[in-house]
Specification:
The structure is a single chain. By secondary structure, the chain is of the alpha+beta class. The protein has 2 domains: about 300 residues; about 190 residues, Reverse transcriptase/Diguanylate cyclase domain (Alpha-Beta Plaits), CATH 3.30.70. Helix content is about 65%, strand content about 10%. It is built from 18 helices and 9 strands. The longest helix has about 40 residues. It starts with 16 loop residues before the first helix and ends with a strand.
């Protein structure tokens, strides 16, 4: 008998660690040759070799990992080609081809911007504009710095020509690109290694553009080969980013927490530092420069004020939410035990000189329902019971879930009003509960204790203890509700009422006996 075994599929190719050292090392060597070479032809060849290596790495990454959204990588490849073409034309052509190299460079900017927008679009946070506001502040700070240190000197140095206007556009585009990079950094995670490498590459090319602009403005004197080194390094970094397995996540939807703003704080701080330098640098600016700088400075300050106000509002909302969760029961929305114990102190002025009654409510037969139908149905019953209690009591009454199936109502009532409220609460449990498991009849037993808010802080504990004792008395003798004083002096309510029928009157409803049937109907005796 011949046993055929299927060969296991070959594992996908994975780069070893030394590849990530060898590839950047080789590119760094070629970049060094580009910087030190005096021959324009050799510099052009090294730039072509670095570009070809980067495109090969991007193509290999796309073929190996097959991302579901490859468009950003194609756009980054196109941007690398356009930027290299523009740089080559500037180095090898005369002024007759000068508009063509600018067109290639502008197309490179456009491709990078589209790629960034594609991978940033799925990372938007609905109904939250803090991310966009922070990115706008960073962009305004960068634009303010660009005008003060780059655009204005370029315009003053070269006059009003078409070439000067194009040269002044590049710092504006760099400010916009920096805004996109800052927004992407703020919405990225540590696990997205490929995206973080792209951030490093884009920041590197921005530094190279800054050097070009400073040289154009006459502030920095540096060779063209040295200025091209950041662009070549960016090609290599983008290629290595395409070889990392996380490259498949570029452009994929990702959940962004709306309150993670610590990553953006450093960028906003830089924008404010730049703004603080404007009064020092702006002393020699002309009228147009002062108008532009003042407008950008005002927009930046307004944005910072709006951002601060939103942060304060969000912090206040978070504090209120935390306080609500600390004081309320999550299942019923009623106050919890700790909030109840603070009720007298919080309402001491409003309840001053008024009698105070506490009604302790316990559901009869809840354990049987919980054991028979499960905790989910039990929770459903608790929530419905809390809703019925809340509809009966007044808005200013304190209603709390004391624990399990026990509820407490604390209100400034006299004895007569407390008895009336207890009757209404018992009436709310006459109708069976319509739950997911069907109609379930449930009755309640209520214990009532009365005191005064002028007493010591232990009054609340005393009221709870006395009302709890009265509730057990009412449950044991099927009274429906009972006052603590009556329960203490009348251990046998049937014998007590039989010996003195006159006490069973409307003037003392606390002594009324409620006999409850399994169908949750209550009849007064």
């Amino acid at each position: 008998m011949t046993v055929s075994e299927d060969r296991p599929a070959a594992p996908p190719f994975r780069f070893r660690t030394w590849w990530y050292v060898l590839l950047p090392g080789g590119s760094a060597a070629m970049i060094a040759v580009h910087v030190t070479a005096n021959s324009p032809l050799l510099s052009l060849c090294t730039m072509g070799a670095v570009l070809a290596g980067a495109l090969a790495m991007i193509g290999f990454g796309l073929r190996t990992y097959r991302p579901t959204r490859p468009l950003p990588w194609y756009l980054l490849s196109a941007s690398a080609v356009f930027s290299a073409a523009g740089a080559a034309l500037r180095d090898t052509s005369d002024h007759a081809l000068h508009p063509i190299d600018d067109v290639c460079t502008l197309l490179a900017y456009l491709a990078v911007g589209l790629a960034a927008l594609i991978w940033l679009r799925p990372r938007q946070v609905r109904s939250n504009y803090d991310l966009l506001l922070d990115s706008a502040l960073i962009g305004l700070g960068a634009l303010l710095a660009s005008w003060t240190f780059l655009i204005s000197p370029i315009l003053h140095l070269h006059g009003s020509t078409a070439n000067t206007a194009v040269a002044a556009v590049y710092p504006v585009l760099d400010a916009l690109l920096l805004t996109l990079v800052a927004h992407s950094v703020a919405t990225s995670s540590r696990s997205e290694s490929s995206l973080r490498l792209l951030h490093v590459g884009l920041i590197t090319v921005l530094l190279g553009d800054l050097g070009h602009s400073l040289a154009k403005a006459g502030t920095l004197a540096i060779g063209r080969e040295m200025l091209m080194a950041p662009l070549l390094a960016t090609y290599t970094i983008v290629g290595v980013a395409a070889l990392h397995p996380t490259m498949t996540g570029l452009g994929a939807p990702r959940r962004i927490h709306p309150h993670h703003s610590r990553q953006r704080a450093s960028f906003i701080a830089v924008a404010l530092i730049v703004a603080s330098l404007v009064p020092v640098v702006g002393s020699s600016l002309g009228t147009l420069d002062r108008v532009v700088v003042s407008s950008l400075f005002a927009l930046l300050l307004i944005g910072v004020l709006v951002r601060s106000e939103r942060a304060i509002v969000r912090s206040s909302r978070s504090e209120r939410r935390a306080q609500y969760q600390a004081d309320h029961d999550m299942l019923t929305g009623l106050l919890n035990r700790s909030a109840l114990l603070r009720a007298v102190n919080l309402n001491s002025e409003r309840w001053a000189e008024q009698p105070l009654c506490l009604l302790f409510i316990d559901l009869d037969g809840f354990k049987m329902v919980n054991d028979s139908y499960g905790h989910a149905v039990g929770d459903e019953l608790i929530a419905n019971a809390a809703s019925r209690i809340r509809r009966v009591v007044l808005r200013d009454d304190m209603v709390a879930r004391y624990g399990g199936d026990e509820f407490v109502v604390l209100s400034p009532l006299d004895r007569q009003e407390a008895a009336t409220l207890a009757e209404r609460l018992l009436g709310a449990f006459v109708r069976p509960f319509e739950l997911s498991a069907g109609e379930i009849p449930i009755t309640a037993s209520i214990g009532i204790a009365c005191g005064s808010p002028r007493s010591t802080e232990s009054t609340v504990y005393d009221l709870i203890r006395d009302a709890d004792s009265a509730m057990y008395h009412a449950k044991e003798y099927a009274l429906g509700y009972a006052f603590h004083d009556d329960a203490r002096h009348a251990p046998d309510p049937v014998r007590y009422l039989a010996s003195d029928p006159a006490r069973h009157s409307a003037n003392e409803p606390g002594r009324r006996i409620w006999r409850t049937s399994p169908r949750s109907t209550s009849t007064a005796v």
